Amino acid sequence: MKKIKKAGKNLFKRIKKLILTITVLAVAAGIYGSYTVQNIEDQYYAFQNEEPVISTAYPFTTQIVNQTDSGYDMQVSLMGVFPVKNVNVQLIEEKTFILGGQPFGVKYYTDGAVIVGCTDVTTSEGKKNPAAEAGLRVQDVINEINGQTITSNEQLTQIIEDSKGQKLTVKATRNELTFYTELYPVLESATGKYKIGLWVRDSTAGIGTITYYDPQNKTFAALGHSISDIDTGQIMPLQKGEVLKSSITGIKKGTQGSPGELQGVFENEVIGTLYSNEMEGIFGDIDADFDYTGKEVQIGLKQQVTEGPATIYCTLDDSGVQEYEIQIVKINKNTQQTTKNMILEVTDERLLEKTGGIVQGMSGSPIMQNGKLIGAVTHVLIDSPTRGYGIFIENMLAH
User: Residue 225 catalytic?
Assistant: First the structure.
């Protein structure tokens, strides 16, 4: 009887130990599983007839639950039994592009006048600000005055001066919403001219780098970020934009706290026009008679991007497009930030010697890894010029 009791106690201890072990493993698996689920992106891009690979060591399976012409929703399950997350998959065409790296110039004109500052007007009756009193503020865009479309700063100034202080009806845009307001210009004592108390901008110009050219429809993508107002940070609304050939004439080397810059000049040849200015880059048409040549490449999607060696292509002088070595040191696949998907570090001694790392004007420089175009350089880290950000190529292709 004693032996039976002792055997029963030992069995109970073993069962208790087994239950404890299973509990610990379940908790650990739950924590790991939760962490892994968080690292599954909310959205993927995939080529036609190809399912995206979810890169994780956890035993997840996938199943298409809803399909449309542009893509499908995919349910991710643990061991094919327990649903853990739904992700959206957008299908894109597998195409061949011509690799960029060439500099270009752009002359950019806004759709209206962007308000970049407000200032009081000194009158015989004291300081006044008609624009602020009418509810206008920095980052608003003035589209029309008295029904007349605004196309330049000079035109706006002339309309205000011609008003002689009479009421002006203003049509403006704020955060893509249109509104109307009324104001009365006032006479500035020092100049004897009518003012409304605003600083505005109607155009900008600069140099960037082309990311890729699509030979099928003769379009291109560049920058990897928008053209934004330097004072407000707002994306500048596009009215028209000219793309010009440009040449790099010098380099301002980047140092800690001071970003460098590619210096260049516009050539007289217009090679294309812009049709879109988006958070993820600028996009345009190349003139049909312009001979765009370069290396043919296919794209790699974000699930194929890995930390480690890669290269970028850019132009620093009259030797043309050159390839330089970098390291992808961090990848952020699950983010609402569409332009800062990778942290890059320049390792190529030639590039470090010439530029100090990543400099202004290199935005749009294509990033290649394992023989595929995976993204573009977007920003430099001001405090560490050897490092910068990159965008996934599919975020640019979405436009």
Answer: yes
